[in-house]
Amino acid sequence: MALKVAVVGCGGVARGSHLPAWKKVPDIELVALCDKDKARADAAVAQFGGKAYYDLEEMLDKVKPDIADVCPREPDHCAPVVITLGRNVNTIVEKPMFCKTNQLAVQWSDLKEAKKMLDAWKKSKAKLAMNFNYRHSPHGKRMKQLIESGELGKPVAIVVHAHLWCWSHVIDLMRWFMGDVVELGAAVSGIPNQMERSAWLKFKNGCTGSITGTWHSSMTHAPLRIDYTGDKARATMYNLSGSIEVYGHGGPSIPGGPVDKKIEVFGDGVRSEFGVNSFIGSLTAFSRAVREGAEYAPSGLDGYRELEIDAGIFKSAETGESIKFKV
Ligand SMILES: NC(=O)c1ccc[n+]([C@@H]2O[C@H](COP(=O)([O-])OP(=O)(O)OC[C@H]3O[C@@H](n4cnc5c(N)ncnc54)[C@H](O)[C@@H]3O)[C@@H](O)[C@H]2O)c1
User: Residue 120, CB half-sphere, CA atoms under 13 Å: how many?
Assistant: First the structure.
């Protein structure tokens, strides 16, 4: 039987990505679209079908969905998620998990609200998932396969550079590839709400790394670069276009020497393919986990860990001390 899906929040990302994606997810029925703004809910229903609701609790009572896809802006994530989980509705929420002011200036106090979602999840019979859809990008999946295949050897270090536009996604990818961060130290510069930021990181697996985020990078250039070093080889991914390059350690000792292998993911500059497809991947994987009663990642805990790193960078820069995480 098809799973009943309700979408909460019918703004830009819902209409541009989630709703077109849900139309392509197998074995689901898009039953309800809810927005506090009546015009937005009505417009979304006219385009994608389902029934319009303007109040979340009324929608949950009437529809009893199997899945709620929570798409408001980040200051409005906590209340709906606590409500959907309180009614044992499997919930997937947009990234970042929570922030009160601006997602480019996540505060340590934002973790308190995010924790409320984890507490609601603990009491619920339902799943809590994050829509970190970059895990479903062609580059993200290929890089993860490379790491897991053992071709790069045992993990050694990771270097990340990203436009702040995709900041929370890139922190999530870094954790996905290297695991939990146990300590970081950071510095920030620039203007409020767009601050450049750099951190050194220590991972639970004993490896080290660094991450830099900037607003000052051309959007025509790859918005993120992840360089993963294993003890056999190093791989660099340039999302959202181009190839993944693999450099074996046994090759020429000249820095910048020949690339051992180029994995063509798709042609340079092809961004549109990544867009909705990664949402289809994320929502399909979550609905499958719900149907099969299987564990799902990225979970609410992955959302919380990502937010901790984001907030920890500002806290470290402010206090001048490193931040340790209990993971
Ligand atoms: N995964 C991605 O790649 C990606 C891309 C873009 C945006 N996002 C994220 O998506 C989220 C939404 O961004 P947006 O640009 O669509 O925002 P938006 O402001 O365009 O839309 C949010 C909508 O949610 C509605 N809303 C708020 N609280 C509600 C509630 N309790 N019940 C029902 N409706 C409610 C608002 O009325 C509004 O229509 C943000 O967290 C953003 O960071 C993710």
Answer: 25
